[in-house]
Design brief:
Number of strands: 8
Number of helices: 14
Structural class: alpha/beta
Radius of gyration: 18 Å
Helix content: 40-55%
Order of helices and strands: HEHEHEHEHEHHEHEHEHHHHH
Shape: globular
């Protein structure tokens, strides 16, 4: 499928949005709306809800589907809405894919089944059955650091034969495999690691699914506009400007936690709360994040002069009223 068609279907600058929560751990729906609107206004043309960064493992099914509906309403045609996850259990993944489609999702980000460590044959069956269950385009999510297993070259090539499988989000960093798959299939690639966004683009990736873009969607828009214009010098300049902020969000603690900590410090979400077993940064971790931010000079779309981190507000984690895995249909 041509790159322009993929971008029209799924977007180019995709934000893996956090799920803003109140101090008690319940979803802050007004905060969700404000964050998504801010990202889209800054230039994001794709929003991924209930992915890893959105704390999918602790969300109920009802919350996941409501996130799709809310994002669709807020974006109002300005950005594509991608439903993340959806599950490491095939039957549950099928159910969520169908419900996401009914709720208005424009695509499915399908993660490699995590924890169970199935064989590649099992992974391929999982992919095909979920892709069969919906008419939506499917992005495969290759992240062995979380899933425990990779998507092998052979599995990706076989999965690419399914008409609904159109792209890969790569968080593995195997650039040789990326090049080979791009040469031998019609799949598109999205960078799934903020540190590698420009490197993936140089190999021919169509875009990025970014965590740091929660904070600076405008910068990633500028980077990929430069890529589209073959202006590598500008793209590299943005990459270098982003480096300390990417380090702050992605290297010390889980990206969900650090991103919420930073967004709250900027006054863009009402609470930095995460759901257990995630917890807010300890003092030493917060200090590392803040030191990296001190190294930020100038990035489009953000001003850190009024950054006011609140370690007390971020401390600990919350137990929601309804456990996500135990009450799927709550």
């Amino acid at each position: 499928m041509p790159q322009t068609e993929i971008i029209n279907q799924l977007g180019q600058v995709l934000v893996a949005v956090v799920t803003p929560m109140r101090a008690d751990g319940e979803v802050d729906w007004a905060g969700v709306e404000a964050l998504i609107d801010d990202c889209v206004t800054q230039g994001a043309d794709g929003i991924v809800v209930s992915g890893t960064t959105g704390e999918t493992s602790t969300l109920t099914d009802a919350e996941k589907i409501q996130l799709v509906r809310t994002a669709k309403q807020v974006a109002s045609g300005r950005a594509r809405i991608i439903s993340g996850g959806p599950s490491n259990e095939t039957a549950h993944a099928i159910q969520l894919a169908r419900e996401s489609e009914a709720a208005g999702a424009d695509g499915i980000l399908l993660v490699t089944p995590y924890y169970l460590k199935p064989t590649q044959s099992g992974v391929l069956t999982h992919i095909r059955m979920v892709a069969d269950a919906t008419d939506l385009p499917v992005i495969l999510y290759d992240i062995p650091g979380r899933a425990g297993i990779p998507l092998t070259y052979e599995t990706i090539v076989r999965a690419a034969k399914h008409p609904n499988v159109v792209a890969v989000k790569d968080a593995k960093g195997d650039f040789a495999q990326v090049s080979r798959v791009l040469n031998e299939t019609s799949l598109a690639y999205y960078s799934g690691d903020d540190t590698h966004a420009l490197a993936h683009a140089a190999l021919g990736a169509v875009g990025v699914v970014s965590v740091t873009a929660n904070i600076v969607s405008a910068a990633y828009r500028k980077m990929f506009d430069a890529v589209n214009a073959n202006d590598f010098a500008t793209a590299l300049s943005v990459h270098r400007d982003l480096e300390p902020l990417v380090r702050a969000t992605m290297t010390h603690i889980p990206g969900t936690v650090s991103t919420k900590y930073i967004l709250h410090g900027l006054g863009r979400i009402g609470s930095p709360r995460v759901r257990l077993p995630l917890v807010g940064p300890e003092d030493a971790e917060a200090a590392l994040i803040e030191a990296d931010i001190d190294a930020v000079e100038s990035i489009p779309g953000v001003d850190f002069t009024d950054f006011r981190p609140d370690r007390n507000a971020a401390a600990g984690g919350a137990l929601p009223r309804i456990p996500g895995a135990a009450r799927r249909n709550a």
